Structures are given as C-alpha cells and as structure tokens.
Backbone:
C-alpha cells in the first residue's frame, strides 16, 4: 500500500469516527429532550363547537398525543369517560377536553319513565348498544286472522338507552321452544312509547333494535312504519 492509499484509508477512518461522534451527539440530545419532556399520553381535543347540555359523541373529539407532565390531572384520556355525559358549558374547537367540562346526563327528562325489556341477544345489535345510544325499535307481528299478512312495524323511534344489563339465559315459552340468550335493556320513554314497547315485548314474534347514527334525530313518517312483503314495490 503506497502513501496515497494509506492517507485515503486514514481519512476514511476519520470520517467514520466523526460520523459516529455526530450520531452519538444526536442521540445524547434526543435522550436529554426525552428526559425533560417525559413520556407521551393520549388526550382529546374538541373537534368542533359543542353547545351546552348537549349529549357527547366520540366524533366531536380528536385524539392527540402530548407529554404526560404537561397534561392536567383532570384531562380526559379515554372516550369511555364521555359515555352518557353532557357538556356543562360551550366546548370550543381546539380546547382540551377535561372532566370538569362534562357531567352525567340526567337519566330521565320530565314526562319520561324508565322501562326495561328483554331483548334477544341474537336479534339485537350485539355489543354495539351502550348507555346513551339511540335506537329504533322494530317488532314483527303475525296476521290477526288467517290469511292476513305478517307485518313488521317500527313502534318507537330514537329511544334513548339508559342501561344495558348482563346476558341471561331464558327458559322456553309459548313463542320460543328453545332456550334463548337475552339482554335486559332499559330505556327512557314517554308514556305512549313505554306502552308500545311493553306490548311488543309481550305479543310480538320478535323485537329488534336498530342503532341510530350519532346525531341523527330524524323520526320515521307514519306511512313508513309498517312493512308488508306483499306491498313491497
């Protein structure tokens, strides 16, 4: 190896050593910053304006990451904390969501009553209905007389779910010849809707729940509440 080649090798080695030194310096700075900032945790920021006394929904907030040491002790870190809650004041876009901004939604409004019915686990919205959900209640009935068509009816719209109980096994009855699994679901209903839903539980062949999209409060017109296969066009 001649002198020129030796100089090239030496320069190459020096370059590698300098690069390693620079890399080590960067790592040292990063570690120093991490030690000062600390680990990051999940928090939630208001995505759009939320009016006071409005029921809270997951879509109104966006997940962010921020250093744990900078997060206030009452910050909301899981959207499970907003279930069944309402805003106690106006929530402004970009604000960090905190527990003192929200309270438990009142169980009942004036004129409402709690009604609990058993819903067949196979015909409900398995695992997707939680307290605070809004559902439409469907019931299917046999024709009153021989030859009359069976009907499917929407008997209650936008029913608010207060509670979802534990799965239970029901013994066979006159309508169901085999044991079924059912879930007790408690609703907040007006007097007339409470009568409709209890009637359906007692006399309908099946009662089903249809989960209403968050923010949807549209009622179903009377003409669209009853369905018969023979009249389907």
Residues:
């Amino acid at each position: 190896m001649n002198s020129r080649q030796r100089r090239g090798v030496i320069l190459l080695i020096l370059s590698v050593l300098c690069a390693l030194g620079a890399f080590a310096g960067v790592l040292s700075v990063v570690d120093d910053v991490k030690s000062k900032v600390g680990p990051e945790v999940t928090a939630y920021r208001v995505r759009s304006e939320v009016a006071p006394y409005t029921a809270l929904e997951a879509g109104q907030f966006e997940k962010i990451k921020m250093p744990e040491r900078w997060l206030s002790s009452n910050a909301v870190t899981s959207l499970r904390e907003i279930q069944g809650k309402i805003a106690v004041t106006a929530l402004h876009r970009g604000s960090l969501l905190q527990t003192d901004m929200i309270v438990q939604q009142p169980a009942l409004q004036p004129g409402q009553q709690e009604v609990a019915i058993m819903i067949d686990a196979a015909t409900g919205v398995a695992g997707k209905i939680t307290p605070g959900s809004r559902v439409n209640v469907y019931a299917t009935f046999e024709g009153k007389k021989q030859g009359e068509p069976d009907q499917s009816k929407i008997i209650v719209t936008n029913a608010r779910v207060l509670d979802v109980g534990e799965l239970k096994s029901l013994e066979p009855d006159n309508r169901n010849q085999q044991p079924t699994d059912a879930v007790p679901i408690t609703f907040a209903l007006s007097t007339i809707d409470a009568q409709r839903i209890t009637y359906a539980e007692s006399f309908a062949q099946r009662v089903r729940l249809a989960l209403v999209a968050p923010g949807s409060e549209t009622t179903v017109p009377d003409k669209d509440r009853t369905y018969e296969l023979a009249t389907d066009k």
About this structure: The mean pLDDT is 79. The radius of gyration is 30 Å.
